[in-house]
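Its record is set out here:
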Amino acid sequence: MILRVVFALGLFALLPAAAADKPAAPYTIAVWSDVSFNAEGGVAESRIIKEADYPAKFADAVKAKIAAMRITPPVQDGKPGLLQSGVRVTYLITPSASGASVSLQETLLAPLPLREIYAAFPKSLNREDSWKGRIDLRCDIDVAGQCLNPVMSTDNGSLPEEARRFAKDSITKWKFAPQTVNGKPVPGEFRMSLDISPDPRAIEDFRDPRKL
């Protein structure tokens, strides 16, 4: 089973390893940063999460992209407020014989993932004839950083109950840093996608290693 998080949660194959493997097909990579915005909507401070995992030039390009961001600041008590938020920057990497091209796909403000835990992958989905496709997830993040009311969907026909349960059991175990306005946590929304492709030759266990 091959499962890839498409968004920024830190992909299972980070950029250095992926570049070394030179995959034939385009793939996405998403980078999370913790960003503070001032009352004018500009970036006051930012920090790439797990910056050491990325090549220096790539990290510098992400920093420059974030530094140039401008948002409409949140309004509190009739005045523009200070926003602290996670920022996910997603790129499409297209390999070629001479290297790879990188194009920006999406920049998104969202609660910052702090803990990523995956449920045990269902054996029924890890056969050659099993369902495969992309699961799109969305959930509300409360002020305590918990995922509430998860919603799963797919554009690949109907979503099997086993896949739906796997996605729900995984995302509800995640922990987030909620967005804050003027230092106070506020509810937010988080969304991500999971690409699932069965491969019986490569069974992986995505359970929390601390609980094995």
Remarks:
- Helices lie at 15-21, 56-67, 161-171.
- The longest strand covers residues 83-96.
- The chain has one domain: 2-211.
